[in-house]
Amino acid sequence: MATFFSFIRAMANLKAFIRTGQAGDGREKALLDHVLQTAEKGNPQSVLEAIDSYSRRTSWLMNIGDDKGPFLDSALGKYNPRVALEIGTYCGYSAVRIASKMQKSGSKLLAVEMSPLNCQIATQIIDHAGLSSKVRVVEGKFDERLDAVKQFLEEMDAPFFDFVFLDHWKDRYMPDYLLLKENGMIRKGSGIFADNMGPVLGPADFKKYIKTHPEELETEEFKSNAEYMRWMPDSVCVSTYNLD
Ligand SMILES: C[S@@+](CC[C@H](N)C(=O)[O-])C[C@H]1O[C@@H](n2cnc3c(N)ncnc32)[C@H](O)[C@@H]1O
Question: 142: Cβ below 6 Å to ligand 1?
């Protein structure tokens, strides 16, 4: 019940939430303090558990969370990426989850986040998890930071991303997916993991595109619920990009 009211409080100021990427009551900074005080330094699992427990008991946060997180873990096992991209980092929960599961030597995640405050919080949380060397946080909107994305790929000596996690504002899934495709940043075999593809939150245009382009995106949908709210249905889509 506490999570429900906390979710409603965050949604009450939706315009500001969408503009700033923060709920407006300082919960994201309070989460950072909670993680620094309660999670074991250098232990990603301990950091994830601290964030999940805060998000269930204190304030709702829009992390992928512990209900849908296992689908992300499985996808990482399947694609085993060396070079990965996340669009929408928030406080760093998924970045910690992804980077801690990237097994290849020299593997690295590029985490793009539009909010400067979220970037600061995520950077400290990733550092507390001991994963700074595996994650680069880039501040800005994805479509405005293609320069930094290209530079990252060059530095990684990688022509494209093996794995992409889409978890930013839903109206940007479609245009940013097309940007990735047009810029050759995904290639045959790349995995695309999209959060919030369910009936309530899902982006209609991207859902329709996946349905109508099965030869391009071979997709499996996994049904679950929205983060920390078992009463709201949600799902994730895991797609393999299949064009040459
Ligand atoms: C749902 S949260 C991300 C949660 C995070 N992936 C996790 O699971 O821990 C969405 C985030 O996307 C950011 N965002 C929204 N539009 C963006 C864009 N075009 N480029 C980069 N970040 C964006 C917001 O500021 C917000 O922090």
Answer: yes
